[in-house]
Automatic annotation (TrEMBL):
Keyword vocabulary terms for this entry: Hydrolase
Record-linked InterPro entries: DUF4015 (IPR025275), GH (IPR017853)
Gene Ontology MF, one: hydrolase activity
Keyword Cell inner membrane attributed: no
Hydrolase recorded as keyword: yes
Protein name per UniProt: Glycoside hydrolase
């Protein structure tokens, strides 16, 4: 209650108890002074805390970026990749800050609670950002959220247990539990460290439960946190946990002036929601600045009526872009669409089902996006080996 409210309550109480007019007048004068003091000391609205990293980056005309591992960012490859971006129409780098194994890729300040987790992949993160700032290469911090094989080693209670062991998938990877707010805070705090360093955007990846979780959710042991008493079915609990994390992260990062983006499976845009992993395309999109669907042609089945999608990158990307646009147009405040496209060869698909991806195949995907009005995109190559001589804006087409 405000000082004015307390004063009114006190005066009413004195009147009901039969206080004299003189006593009541003294109280009115005293309380009027207190209200005056409060107005001088406390403004109507306090300014919101806003952190300034001291770095300045202009948001590009449209983000056209590449993926960069921690090892590449901290090694000799970094200069090569900077040259690639600086000499073409590329203008952004998505750099691993917390990688696919849950390792933080640079040493954090000694007073950080995560200082002991920082690796030395990027030995001089400030110098790295100095270079990016000088070249005006837009820096995006990639943080792999719920796929994490590092945290469960010391906190198995934050993971999924298979009997007495931490559950791992077929690739030997662990996940942490999206139901637990302690896991949320852990990842958000790492994101805040990246924002303080000067990254302009936080990109959350693996914002989901493990693939096929609906087939094992009743066998594994794990906590439900605040969702324990929910009357919803398991699918909706997972959807709410994932969506709630994204909304929570965006709110916590707001004072740091960074954009928030999320990577999401392309196929989730084709479904009301992905039941096992908890991703709902529309609900996540409502809580981010940028949505980055992973739409690599090699990762699709014949959903769009394309028997061998890897062989038809233009058609596949165009069909997806049309579908995504329709979904985003249903939202009141749609995010920027910035898909991940393919710059790698998916030989694992077997003879006759794949092709070598070079300049032609990359440009076909870019053209498909452009033809549907999508100007932003990111290139994925796990080894950071990108096709040469690509026209990244197709301005001659």
């Amino acid at each position: 209650m405000t000082v004015a409210g307390l004063a009114a309550s006190l005066i009413w109480q004195l009147q009901t108890e039969g206080a004299s007019a003189e006593e009541i007048e003294k109280v009115k004068i005293h309380e009027a002074r207190q209200v005056s003091i409060q107005k001088k000391v406390l403004p109507d609205s306090l300014p919101r805390f806003v952190f300034n990293s001291g770095r300045h980056f202009e948001y590009p005309d449209a983000v056209r970026g590449i993926y960069v591992t921690g090892h590449s960012a901290g090694g000799s490859r970094f200069n090569e990749l900077v040259k690639l971006v600086d000499s073409t129409d590329l203008n952004a780098m998505v750099i691993d800050v917390k990688d696919d194994w849950g390792q933080i890729t640079y040493k954090l300040p000694d007073d950080s609670p995560f200082a002991h987790l920082g690796q030395n992949y990027i030995q001089e993160p400030n110098e790295m950002l100095d270079v990016l700032e000088e070249k005006q290469i837009y820096p995006i911090a990639r943080i792999v959220v719920f796929k994490d094989s590092t945290l469960p080693k010391t906190r198995p209670d934050l993971s999924f247990m298979d009997g007495k062991k931490i559950w791992v998938n077929g690739r030997g990877e662990s996940f942490v539990n999206p139901f637990l707010k302690e896991v949320w805070d852990y990842n958000v705090d790492i994101a805040i460290e990246a924002a303080k360093l000067g990254f302009q955007e936080i990109q959350f990846d693996y914002v989901r439960f493990p693939e096929g979780f609906e087939r094992r959710d009743s066998q594994l042991k794990y906590g439900l946190g605040d969702y324990k008493d929910s009357k919803e079915d398991n699918v909706q609990k997972r959807v709410h946990a994932v969506t709630d994390f994204v909304a929570y992260a965006k709110e916590k990062l707001a004072p740091y002036g960074v954009k928030v983006s999320v990577d999401i499976f392309g196929y989730t845009a084709t479904l009301p929601e992905a039941p096992g992993i908890g991703q709902n395309f529309s609900k996540i999109s409502e809580n981010v600045d940028v949505i980055s669907s992973m739409i690599y042609p090699s990762h699709w089945t014949s959903y769009f009526g394309i028997a061998k999608p890897d062989l038809e990158p233009y058609k596949l990307v165009k069909e997806y872009a049309k579908l995504e646009k329709a979904k985003l147009n249903e939202l009141k405040n749609p995010p920027i669409s910035r898909p991940w496209i393919q710059d790698f060869t998916a030989s694992y698909l077997g003879a006759g089902n794949y092709q070598v991806y070079r300049k032609e195949q990359v440009e076909a995907q870019i053209k498909a996006l452009y033809d549907e009005g999508i100007k932003e995109y990111l290139l994925w190559n796990a080894g950071n080996n990108y096709s040469p001589n690509v026209d990244y804006t197709l301005d001659k087409k």
